[in-house]
Amino acid sequence: INSRTTYEQEVLLSSSKDQFKEVLLGSSKDQLNEQEVLPRINSRGSHKIGPFQLVAQLKEGPSTHDRVRWFISGQHQLSLQAFHFPLENTASYVTIVPLKPMQLKTFTLCFWVQNSNQGRQTVLFYSTPESENELVISVGMAVGVWIGGKFVQFDLHRRAEDWVHHCVTWVSSSGTINLWVNGAVGTARNIQKNYIIQSGGTPILGKRKNAMLDVFADAFSGWMSHVNLWSWLLDQNDIQELTLCKHTQQKGDVLAWGETHMSLYGGVTLGPDTS
């Protein structure tokens, strides 16, 4: 083991993500290095291929939490897992590396969430240097959608704390946007006809980020699972299949749950998917 201060060490664990987090962050010392971390991994983790792959990355920073990031590689089964965003940590979020550029003339975004129906809570936030709200989806008292800086809202009436399946579809040629909730479609709206969503940004789950001030807002609190983004329009049968059978083989070609590289920050944890 060398003595680099910045490194990335892949660890295949059959133990839980929380246990692995305890292994890395359980030290009371502010400084962690490879000589400290890897023996703990070797003693606590089996190194067998588990339900998902975790990669720990240590970097120099003001605190341990600033230097430890969690990566989930889709080479293993994330499909049975869900993200939990804690209420008490407003800095919890997940960054995503898309499978292809986010240049979209059409899209379908589907996801499961279990959260309170209060306020505005960001599910997906995507910005570019030219457009802060290039593609944003929020839930709460309503479902809000930003495309290219324009906003449309769908009123949503549901009981708090239920798992709910959402799909948002949009076609640039007509500007038509639809919201599907638990397999049922509502009244279509129109937004940004002939617009093309631009590439060049980093998708984020769970937070809205102000790039100029480098602060987060509209925090998501609760559970999130099966986030998939397609560069085409799913039809009614496809969406209803996703609603009725969440473990279907349908995966997005832009964001694919269980395949897309994701990084967890600020206390986001993995837990069993109970949707």
UniProtKB/TrEMBL annotation:
GO MF terms held by the record: metal ion binding
Record keywords: Calcium, Disulfide bond, Metal-binding, Signal
PROSITE patterns: PTX_1, PTX_2
UniProt cofactor(s): Ca(2+)
Pfam family, one: Pentaxin
InterPro entries according to UniProt: ConA-like_dom_sf (IPR013320), Pentaxin_CS (IPR030476), Pentraxin_domain (IPR051005), PTX_dom (IPR001759)
Span of domain Pentraxin (PTX): 79-275
Protein name: C-reactive protein-like
